[in-house]
Sequence to fold (114 residues):
Amino acid sequence: QVKLVESGGGLVQPGGSLRLSCQASGFHIANAEMKWFRQAPGKEREKVAGIFGVLVDTTEIADSRFSISRDNIENTVYLDLDYLTPEDSGVYYCNAAVSGLEYWGSGTLITVSS
Fold:
Protein backbone atom coordinates (compact mmCIF):
# COMPACT_ATOMS: atom_id res chain seq x y z
CA GLN A 1 0.00 0.00 0.00
CA VAL A 2 1.45 3.32 -1.07
CA LYS A 3 1.63 5.89 1.66
CA LEU A 4 3.15 9.38 1.85
CA VAL A 5 3.54 11.13 5.17
CA GLU A 6 4.70 14.74 5.29
CA SER A 7 6.24 16.40 8.32
CA GLY A 8 8.24 19.46 9.26
CA GLY A 9 5.69 22.20 8.86
CA GLY A 10 4.93 24.80 11.48
CA LEU A 11 5.10 28.45 12.36
CA VAL A 12 8.17 30.31 11.19
CA GLN A 13 9.11 33.97 11.12
CA PRO A 14 9.69 35.78 7.84
CA GLY A 15 13.21 35.13 6.62
CA GLY A 16 13.35 31.79 8.36
CA SER A 17 13.91 28.29 7.03
CA LEU A 18 12.20 24.93 7.25
CA ARG A 19 12.89 21.42 6.11
CA LEU A 20 9.93 19.32 5.08
CA SER A 21 10.11 15.55 4.91
CA CYS A 22 8.03 13.09 2.93
CA GLN A 23 8.35 9.54 4.21
CA ALA A 24 7.25 7.10 1.54
CA SER A 25 6.21 3.48 1.96
CA GLY A 26 4.84 0.82 -0.34
CA PHE A 27 7.23 1.69 -3.16
CA HIS A 28 10.78 2.92 -3.63
CA ILE A 29 11.24 6.60 -4.33
CA ALA A 30 14.12 5.88 -6.72
CA ASN A 31 11.56 4.36 -9.07
CA ALA A 32 9.11 7.24 -8.84
CA GLU A 33 8.80 10.85 -9.82
CA MET A 34 8.47 12.74 -6.56
CA LYS A 35 7.09 16.25 -6.28
CA TRP A 36 6.14 18.85 -3.74
CA PHE A 37 3.10 21.04 -4.20
CA ARG A 38 1.66 23.77 -2.07
CA GLN A 39 -1.75 25.33 -1.73
CA ALA A 40 -2.29 28.72 -0.18
CA PRO A 41 -5.73 29.69 1.16
CA GLY A 42 -8.03 30.57 -1.72
CA LYS A 43 -5.50 29.59 -4.36
CA GLU A 44 -4.94 26.61 -6.59
CA ARG A 45 -2.42 23.93 -5.76
CA GLU A 46 0.91 24.63 -7.46
CA LYS A 47 4.04 22.61 -8.02
CA VAL A 48 7.04 23.71 -5.99
CA ALA A 49 9.70 21.14 -6.83
CA GLY A 50 10.27 17.72 -8.32
CA ILE A 51 12.96 15.05 -8.30
CA PHE A 52 13.33 11.91 -10.39
CA GLY A 53 15.87 9.63 -12.01
CA VAL A 54 17.08 6.14 -11.17
CA LEU A 55 20.86 6.63 -11.31
CA VAL A 56 21.17 10.41 -11.32
CA ASP A 57 18.92 12.87 -9.52
CA THR A 58 17.20 15.31 -11.81
CA THR A 59 15.52 18.18 -10.01
CA GLU A 60 13.01 20.84 -10.95
CA ILE A 61 12.66 23.89 -8.76
CA ALA A 62 10.07 26.63 -9.11
CA ASP A 63 11.88 29.03 -6.76
CA SER A 64 15.62 29.40 -6.16
CA ARG A 65 14.98 29.72 -2.42
CA PHE A 66 13.93 26.10 -2.32
CA SER A 67 15.78 22.84 -2.88
CA ILE A 68 14.67 19.25 -3.13
CA SER A 69 16.64 16.13 -2.27
CA ARG A 70 16.06 12.53 -1.42
CA ASP A 71 17.52 9.79 0.71
CA ASN A 72 16.95 6.49 -1.08
CA ILE A 73 17.96 4.49 1.99
CA GLU A 74 15.45 6.28 4.22
CA ASN A 75 12.98 6.36 1.31
CA THR A 76 12.38 10.00 2.12
CA VAL A 77 12.18 13.15 0.04
CA TYR A 78 13.06 16.52 1.52
CA LEU A 79 12.12 20.07 0.65
CA ASP A 80 14.34 22.78 2.08
CA LEU A 81 12.78 26.22 2.20
CA ASP A 82 14.87 29.33 2.89
CA TYR A 83 14.10 33.05 3.23
CA LEU A 84 10.44 32.32 3.76
CA THR A 85 7.87 35.05 3.32
CA PRO A 86 4.20 35.19 4.37
CA GLU A 87 3.32 34.40 0.74
CA ASP A 88 4.90 30.97 1.24
CA SER A 89 2.27 30.06 3.82
CA GLY A 90 0.00 27.17 2.95
CA VAL A 91 -0.31 23.42 3.00
CA TYR A 92 2.58 21.59 1.39
CA TYR A 93 1.83 18.23 -0.19
CA CYS A 94 4.06 15.38 -1.25
CA ASN A 95 3.15 13.70 -4.53
CA ALA A 96 4.40 10.49 -6.10
CA ALA A 97 3.92 9.21 -9.63
CA VAL A 98 4.44 5.46 -9.55
CA SER A 99 3.76 3.09 -12.42
CA GLY A 100 1.31 5.46 -14.03
CA LEU A 101 -0.59 6.18 -10.84
CA GLU A 102 -0.49 9.29 -8.70
CA TYR A 103 -0.52 9.45 -4.93
CA TRP A 104 -0.80 12.31 -2.44
CA GLY A 105 0.03 12.80 1.18
CA SER A 106 -2.31 14.64 3.51
CA GLY A 107 -0.05 17.69 3.68
CA THR A 108 1.82 19.71 6.26
CA LEU A 109 0.95 23.30 7.09
CA ILE A 110 3.47 26.14 6.98
CA THR A 111 2.59 29.49 8.44
CA VAL A 112 5.04 32.32 7.93
CA SER A 113 4.27 35.14 10.30
CA SER A 114 5.91 37.43 12.78
